């Protein structure tokens, strides 16, 4: 058999030749011989055919012309091959193979002239003609002939000579005009025809063959063909029967392998079921292929199997058959430009149906977003499918809300589903969905009907307020929010400028949440609106002050009166923290109301510490507070006033004796105490004074010890540092003359002085000291008042 792009030529054991189309239909029939057809050959045009048979007959004829050649030999002719361009007049050539390889050429007067190309190595087993190269196989190996130079350019010997060449024939295949693939036994060789360099010619052919890949297969080769950079191999398989433990014929295999230099990698493998495979031999199978269509024909005695390269459509078919819809959808999206059979949308819809059948409703709804896209008709169709099975809730989260927008009925249907069974879910959808997706009036009426059954349901009331807001019925929404005391009321007031509508409800608003006022409303406007409610005005300004001391500074003067009237405990903290409060005004109000603590603070802050202290002593009569005040002011005169005021009050003297020991000398107080004055707890106070004194002495001694220890440690550290050597090299300079400190001539004598400060001088450059002491000091450090640095090293040579 042989193959053309348009048909398959098939020869039988009864001498018939059939032409079949790619669907297997017989289109033509030729009676060639009464015996077996051995070989059929076609030219590239598919217009001429060569046939040889077991009785020695060779015929070359035109399928669509009267051109014909007949020849009968005295031996069986196994091989025939017509020139690939036989249709052209100057390429009327063909070769036959029996015991010889003969070339027939049409010459003068349309006569055919035979010439022997090769003989003497047994029967010719296979011939393949490509371009100007003829490859043939005989019992010894494979040869290639260059038709241009009429020279044989290679001989590829047979590897396994133990195999009978008639039972395990050689398979030849041209991948292109210069690449020959040889399969024989279980060996595969890929040969490349190359041009020989001119310098290597001599008496050699101008072409040579290089084996670029060579590897062995697991089974015997019945045929092979190229597919891109890989190989398709038809293998004859034998296996041991499990029942009889005898070797028998198994189903043939069609493998795709990736050739490597010395091995191969199996890409795929398929076992083929053909009739009678148990009786077939290796020679009974043939592999032919059509380059244009990437079709591969497996020929067996009873069957012809057509194989084609799998494409993405085939892969998607397999995935759909295995119900791997997600993988099929992904494969279709990746290869959407190349697939011809499938549509992404159809696969996606099948995937959604599959998920719904499995009960994975949420996943099915989620996939709708990606698969349905902007197709509103499909969206609505799928929503109704979800409704039929009672799963509208599953798809609600994934319904499109913008581009596209579905019919209002779809959204209303989903909202009604939630309203009947899930108030919280209903509220969530109303909050998330834009109000223009559905008929707001219908949904409002439905909520009102449900509220008749459950009038106190806060979720429904809150949702109804939101629906009223969408419908711009702000008054009703505000009324519901106020009833619920819901924080969204402030956002509603601010967003829609409803301040004038809540003047009579300010007290209610302030009662349940005053914090949000600072976020939504202007300070001046709130203060103005609360002018007639000073207690709420105070609450608002107090919280404002707590949030930011400077934001309401223009109202700090007003706040003094408000604090004094409604919140005295926070007045003093306010006076302390405010930097914008008028002190005179505050002092006046505090004095009017006889607020002693606040007045004391204001007097001290205004610099009148004596009056403040006097008020503490006279009004509060609290010696501890007076002492604490004196400590804060840290003023000697203030202590003197405190002692003078306390000298005739025994309880005050006791307090002073117990507390002033660390600030004022107690002797000053003790000397002023009158003789005979009875002072409560005097003994305990004196003991405490002595204890405080002893404690001070101990602290001083401890500090002194620490100071001495630290000084000694630092002195030792300085001594160790100064005792270290100092590096003097040619990079150092004299600080006086600025020349290198070391002479360039090492043989000359020199004298160098180095100070602890690391300044260096030539001895002769250092000024002579006028002091009697022999200690020298660094002039640079002395001039900069860094302290004298005495010399630590004197180098001489």
Automatic annotation (TrEMBL):
One of its GO terms (cellular component) is clathrin-coated vesicle. It is a peripheral membrane protein. It comes from the Eukaryota. GO terms for molecular function: zinc ion binding. GO terms for biological process: cellular response to starvation; endosomal vesicle fusion; macroautophagy; protein targeting to vacuole. InterPro entries: Beta-prop_Vps41, Clathrin_H-chain/VPS_repeat, TPR-like_helical_dom_sf, Vps41, Vps41/Vps8, WD40/YVTN_repeat-like_dom_sf, WD40_repeat_dom_sf, Znf_RING. CHCR repeats lie at residues 511-655. The keyword Iron does not apply. Signal peptide: none annotated. It is found in: Cytoplasm, Cytosol; Early endosome membrane; Endosome membrane; Late endosome membrane. Keywords: Autophagy, Cytoplasm, Cytoplasmic vesicle, Endosome, Golgi apparatus, Lysosome, Membrane, Metal-binding, Protein transport, Transport, Zinc, Zinc-finger. Residues 734-782 form the RING-type domain. The keyword Protein transport applies. Its main location: cytoplasm. Belongs to the VPS41 family. Plays a role in vesicle-mediated protein trafficking to lysosomal compartments including the endocytic membrane transport pathways. This is Vacuolar protein sorting-associated protein 41 homolog. It comes from Zosterops lateralis melanops.
């Amino acid at each position: 058999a042989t193959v053309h792009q348009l048909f398959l030529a098939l020869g039988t054991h009864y001498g018939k030749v059939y032409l079949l189309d790619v669907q297997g239909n017989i289109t033509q029939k030729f009676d060639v011989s009464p015996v077996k057809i051995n070989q059929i050959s076609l030219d590239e045009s598919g217009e001429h055919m060569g046939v040889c048979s077991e009785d020695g007959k060779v015929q070359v004829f035109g399928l669509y012309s009267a051109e014909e050649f007949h020849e009968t030999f005295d031996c069986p002719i196994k091989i025939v091959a017509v020139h690939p361009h036989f249709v052209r007049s100057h390429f009327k050539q063909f070769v036959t193979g029996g015991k010889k390889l003969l070339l027939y050429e049409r010459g003068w007067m349309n006569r055919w002239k035979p010439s022997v190309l090769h003989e003497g190595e047994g029967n010719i087993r296979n011939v393949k003609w490509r371009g100007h190269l003829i490859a043939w196989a005989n019992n010894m190996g494979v040869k290639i002939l260059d038709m241009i130079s009429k020279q044989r350019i290679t001989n590829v010997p047979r590897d396994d000579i133990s195999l009978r060449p008639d039972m395990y024939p050689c398979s030849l295949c041209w991948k292109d005009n210069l690449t020959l693939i040889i399969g024989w036994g279980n060996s595969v060789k890929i040969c490349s025809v190359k041009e020989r360099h001119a310098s290597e010619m001599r008496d050699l052919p101008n072409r040579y063959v290089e084996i670029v890949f060579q590897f062995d297969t697991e089974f015997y080769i019945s045929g092979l063909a190229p597919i891109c950079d890989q190989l398709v191999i038809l293998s004859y398989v034998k296996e041991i029967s499990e029942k009889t433990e005898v070797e028998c014929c198994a189903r043939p295999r069609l493998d795709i392998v990736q050739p490597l230099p010395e091995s191969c990698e199996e890409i795929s493998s398929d076992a083929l079921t053909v009739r009678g495979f148990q009786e077939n031999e290796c020679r009974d199978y043939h592999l032919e292929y059509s380059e244009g269509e990437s079709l591969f024909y497996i020929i067996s005695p009873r069957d012809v199997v057509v194989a084609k390269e799998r494409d993405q459509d085939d892969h998607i078919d397999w995935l759909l058959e295995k119900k791997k819809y997600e993988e099929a959808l992904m494969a279709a999206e990746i290869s959407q430009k190349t697939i011809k059979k499938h549509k992404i949308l159809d696969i996606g819809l099948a995937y959604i149906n599959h998920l719904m059948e499995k009960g994975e409703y949420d996943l099915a709804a989620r996939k709708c977003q990606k698969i349905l896209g902007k197709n509103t008709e499909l969206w609505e169709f799928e929503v109704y499918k979800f409704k039929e099975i009672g799963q509208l809730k599953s798809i609600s989260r994934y319904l499109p809300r913008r581009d596209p927008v579905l019919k209002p009925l779809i959204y209303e249907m989903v909202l009604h589903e939630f309203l009947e069974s899930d108030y919280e879910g209903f509220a969530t959808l109303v909050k998330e969905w834009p109000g223009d997706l559905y008929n707001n009036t219908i949904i409002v009426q439905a909520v009102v009907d449900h509220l008749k059954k459950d009038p106190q349901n806060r979720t429904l009331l809150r949702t109804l307020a939101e629906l009223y807001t969408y419908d711009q019925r702000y008054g009703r929404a505000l009324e519901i929010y106020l009833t619920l005391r819901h924080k969204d009321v402030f956002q509603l007031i601010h967003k829609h400028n409803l301040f004038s509508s809540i003047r009579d409800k300010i007290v209610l608003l302030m009662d349940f949440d005053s914090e949000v006022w600072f976020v939504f409303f202007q300070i001046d406007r709130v203060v103005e609106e609360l002018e007639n409610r000073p207690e709420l005005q105070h609450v608002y300004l107090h919280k404002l002050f707590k949030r930011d001391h400077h934001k309401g500074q223009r109202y700090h003067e007003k706040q003094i009166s408000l604090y004094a009237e409604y919140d005295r405990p926070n007045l003093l903290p306010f006076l302390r923290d405010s930097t914008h409060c008028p002190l005179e005004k505050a002092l006046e109000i505090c004095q009017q109301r006889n607020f002693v603590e606040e007045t004391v603070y204001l007097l001290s802050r205004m610099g009148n510490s004596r009056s403040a202290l006097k008020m503490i002593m006279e009004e509060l009569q609290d010696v501890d507070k007076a002492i604490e005040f004196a400590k804060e002011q840290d003023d000697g005169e203030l202590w003197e006033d405190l002692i003078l005021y306390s000298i005739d009050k025994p309880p005050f003297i006791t307090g002073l004796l117990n507390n002033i020991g660390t600030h004022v000398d107690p002797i000053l107080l003790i000397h002023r105490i009158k003789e005979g004055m009875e002072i409560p707890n005097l003994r305990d106070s004196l003991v405490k004074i002595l204890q405080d004194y002893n404690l001070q002495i101990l602290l001083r001694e401890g500090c002194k010890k620490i100071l001495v220890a630290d000084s000694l440690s630092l002195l030792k550290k300085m001594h160790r540092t100064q005792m270290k050597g100092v590096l003097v090299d040619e990079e150092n300079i004299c600080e006086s003359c600025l020349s290198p400190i070391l002479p360039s001539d090492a043989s000359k004598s020199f004298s160098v002085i180095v100070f602890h400060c690391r300044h260096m001088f030539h001895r002769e450059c250092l000024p002579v000291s006028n002091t009697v002491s022999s200690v020298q000091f660094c002039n640079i450090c002395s001039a900069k008042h860094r302290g004298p640095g005495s010399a630590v090293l004197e180098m001489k040579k």
